[in-house]
Each structure stands twice: as structure tokens, then as C-alpha cells.
Amino acid sequence: CNQQALAEVCQSAQYATNATTTFVSHPPVRLANAATAAQRQSTTTRRSRGDPTSTNQQKKRRKEANVVHSRNKREKKKKEFQALQEESERVTKCHAALKAEEDRLQQLLQQAKSVLLTSNSSDMDDTK
After folding, report:
1. Residue 47: CB partners within 8 Å, gap ≥ 6?
2. pLDDT per residue over 93-105, tens digit each?
3. Is the backbone of residue 51 left (phi > 0), alpha (psi -120 to 50) or beta?
């Protein structure tokens, strides 16, 4: 009886040793996979629960993006306004030059009319 019990204990000890050896040879892979799965699960759970830190980070990123967008928009509008001011100044100068040209041409037209009237009157005087 003792020998049979001793043989069973030896067999179970050897089985346990083989199982431990087998387990020891593979645990890094199993543990790494288990750890990765646990991280995925906790990340998914954290996101789905609305973790305050991730929400705060999202708000902070959104606020920074809004600040950058607002700054770019303000600079763009400032450049557009500057371009419109320059265009306005150019058009104003062009208008002034055209107005001066119009005045000069009106004056020449008046002179031509007066010369024409004068020449017509002198032609009439000559015909008499």
C-alpha cells in the first residue's frame, strides 16, 4: 500500500513538474496577451464611462484647436481688410485722376465750342 501511494505521489509530482515546466515555458506570451487584453478592456471601459481625465483632455485639445482656428481666422480677416484698404486707396487715386482728366476735357470742350462760335460769328460777318 505504501509503495502504491508513493508511486502515485511520485507520478503526481512528476505531472506537476511537467505541467509547471510547460506552463513556465509559455507564460510570457499568455501573460502578455492577457495584459494587452486587460488594457484594451480597461481603455474601452474608461472611454465608455466618460473618464474625467480623457474628457478634460478632449476639452483642452478642442479649446486649443479653437484658439488656433480663431487666430488663423482673425489673421486672414486682417489680411483681407488690409488688401481691401489698399484697393480702396488705389481706386480713390484712380478716381481722382479720372476726375481731373474729365475736368480737363470739359475745359477743352468749352474752349472748342467758344472757338467754334467765334469762328461762326466771324464767318457770318464776312458774308455780310
Report:
1. 54
2. 999 999 999 999 9
3. beta
Q: Which residue has the higher pLDDT, 29 or 105?
A: 105
Give the DSSP letter string of 10-58.
HHHHHHHHHHHHHHHHSHHHHHHHHHHHHHHHHHHHHHHHT-HHHHHHH
Overall domain count for the chain:
1
- Taken as a whole, the chain contains a residue count of 128
C-alpha cell belonging to residue 122: 466771324
Q: Which structural domain range is residue 94 located in? A: 76-128
Tell me what the pLDDT averaged over the chain comes to: 77
Residue 13 lies in a domain: no
Q: Phi, psi (5° rounding) for residue 108?
A: -65, -40
- Provide mean pLDDT across the span 68-84: 97
d(CA 13, CA 27): 20
C-alpha cell at 64: 486649443
d(CA 12, CA 119): 142
